[in-house]
């Protein structure tokens, strides 16, 4: 890594991620590489200041290279290293850096051996296609990084203005090459340059409070934030708070996050249901196992669900939790009134009098699924997902969710906004939140 210069602020190395491919601009392929690379760089204390996506056009790619090299210390480029004519990344970088391309004889021999062994040539032959020879070309002074999972090697070049790294576009190849070769090189460069600050982050997951309410409750903390920084992120049915700290060591950065997180926990309390990759259904599973009670004595319980408008979505999320067979008895999708009567024992006169989307029917479904499945707890969802089926009295999005546990039933009325898919997703998520609340009582 070059010495601290005008690019670097507070000894933080600035990076730009450049994703190459017209398919990314068209939306045919989702750009997951940039997100993964950003997380990898953050682990080294390299801050990603810019992310750029550019199509397979030599002039535009060259302009993107020049901009990135001018404003960043490290430029990581994914894509455009294949054997076809529209794979321009390698050649364009050589042009921008004014470095001629040279053939790497060792990689050429490696490719020829692969094609001979696996018969990847035209028509299953053993001859290396002429196009693949492009993947043996390296700019003068650059280092070829062998690809253990494909034919396109990476390239690592230390220019006078920035370190530029080229990695393949396929995520599996990119991931392996970054972990095996790029990150160790960047870590060594960081250490040599004395810019080894570490970035650490943590996500607090919040349920039951909207983004504006969270911001209101944390107003003073958000106004005074410096290190760690606090970024509220609105998600479907919940809010995430990303805490990011930088320090000389990981322990020091973690300590900064711990202190800020403790203050947030004091303010928001049990509205925070988990951290980082923890899911709401996993938390529910922990409670059903009789664990995670913050010191309270709990017992293990079983669960069954009755779904109408969500069509099995709640059961799907619950059974995604590893080990759910220990506490999940089963689910009944009683979409029609006939199935509500036959499978859940909901009285016909109740449905006729109150309507299928009503609090009494939701309560009856919750107790009915307990009887049908022999579980300790039951959850029921009935609603109008739309776009049709609504009325002035019962509009689209109207949903009732009931939870019965230990002989007590709670039921709430909701009006979820959005299209059919969003209404279903919100209903399932809210049911998990309501179940969590009941299990924590």
What do you see in this structure?
This protein has 441 residues and is of the alpha/beta class. It has three domains: 13-193, Molybdenum Cofactor Biosythetic Enzyme, Chain A, CATH 3.40.980; 198-275, Alpha-Beta Plaits, CATH 3.30.70; 280-439, CinA-like (Maf protein, Alpha-Beta Complex). The chain has helices at residues 22-26, 33-43, 58-71, 89-97, 105-118, 171-193, 211-217, 219-224, 250-268, 280-288, 313-319, 337-344, 348-354, 359-373, 420-439; strands at residues 13-20, 46-54, 74-78, 101-103, 137-139, 143-145, 154-158, 163-167, 198-207, 229-235, 238-247, 272-275, 303-307, 328-333, 377-383, 398-405, 408-415. The protein has a six-stranded mixed β-sheet, sandwiched between helices. A five-stranded mixed β-sheet has the order 14-13-15-16-17, sandwiched between helices. A hairpin with a 2-residue loop joins β16 and β17 (408-415). α2 (33-43) packs parallel to α6 (171-193). The longest helix is centred in the middle third of the chain and has 23 residues, at 171-193. It is elongated.
Per-chain topology:
Blueprint: E1 13-20, H1 22-26, H2 33-43, E2 46-54, H3 58-71, E3 74-78, H4 89-97, E4 101-103, H5 105-118, E5 137-139, E6 143-145, E7 154-158, E8 163-167, H6 171-193, E9 198-207, H7 211-217, H8 219-224, E10 229-235, E11 238-247, H9 250-268, E12 272-275, H10 280-288, E13 303-307, H11 313-319, E14 328-333, H12 337-344, H13 348-354, H14 359-373, E15 377-383, E16 398-405, E17 408-415, H15 420-439
Helix pairs in contact: 2-6, 3-4, 10-15
